[in-house]
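[Automated response] Your request has been received and processed.

Submitted sequence:
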Amino acid sequence: MGLQPEKQVSLHAAFPECLSFADFEIPAFIKATELVPTIDPSYQLNPEATLAILAGFAFNRRVMLQGMHGTGKSTHIEQVAARLNWPCLRINLDGQITRMDLIGKDVIALEDGKQITCFQEGLIPWSLQRPIALILDEYDAGQPDVMFVIQRMLEREGRLTLLDQNRVINPNPGFRIFATSNTVGLGNWNGLYQGTQLLNHGQMDRWDIVAALNYLDPQEEQKILLAKVPELSKNQAMAMISLANLTRNGFAAGDISTLMSTRTLITWGENWRIFKDLQIAFSLAFLNKCESEEKALVAEYYQRCFASELEISNKSN
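Generated structure:
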């Protein structure tokens, strides 16, 4: 079903940020459809992660991006796909998604005025039959019965057997599969990611490429922030990023329970544009998300970056 990639683009020509000895051709579409993500010209592609994702598109490799939350893992895959005009579908593997959501279920429908029972395809059979990049978000939060459904697609042939339908689905030549995770299948071993699951070795072994995506270099993050909020000065933007990095280090050390992502930085800048006050904008974007016991430490971070005291409400959360 659907069109197949209609052209080939050169890695070095189309993605010059990928500093690689290898240069290969990547299939792409000429026109964008409604499922193709919109290109964000201010998005900074990480060279290593981009190279891994492009290998997935070019050679049908199963690619997982691992990293802390807020690093833009899913967005990174979408932005690479957008530059190839490749349709995408994101599925968040939270605790609410079920095996029936993925595989399908029997539903009652009306046909010629009569009620009949018919099979309604789930997200996976629908995707498999189309030239789509399927992105499995929060892969390490999936429930065991859901994960074993997905495991079938990770085989080299990627066929899916619908037992209830006595049917085998062969993947469309343009089907690709990606995943994002906060851990690498180790579960919540460090206490930072409640709800993540231990994944068996057989499950993880089926992923051909696992790439790490960490927070951007400060200069690159500054480019994004200034592109989104050009009214900020370079010094303001760098101070904001320095504060964000302190929260990230504090989160990794277990000192605070949340951190500032690039998205939070942009929200802070946009709030500043509205309220014309950096402290108020910061409180509304990040501080009020912190536990009461953590706010004093966050205020210390703020003082170190801006050389000014941060007013903290005495009210508890």
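Summary generated for your ticket: The longest helix spans residues 234-253. Confidence is low (pLDDT under 50) at residues 185-195.
If you did not submit this request, please reply to this message.
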